[in-house]
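Deliverable D5.2: sample structural annotation.
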Amino acid sequence: MGGFSIWHILIFAVIVLLLFGGNRFSNMMGDVAKGLKSFKQGMADEDDDKRHRYEEQRRNEPPRQLPREDARAQEPIDVTPRPAEPASPPPPRDDQVR
């Protein structure tokens, strides 16, 4: 049937415990946990180094100026309301005479 059932996994676990013993298996899992912890710490240290280098670079460069496209960009925007234009009459319906 191709897949592992719960019984296959339990039998495999018992065989692993018999071969390696409880104490040795627990020591191996502890070593794996230490390895994962040191890997995560190394990744965090690398990210901190990159962030510090980026912040240092940003502190040393002058602030950037936005490019000015034309003189119109400096004019204030007119926001005064305008009178409403008269609405055009609706188109005649089909049942009305034109």
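Annotation notes: The longest helix spans residues 22-60. DSSP finds two helices and no strands in the chain.
The annotation will be released with the project's public dataset once the embargo ends.
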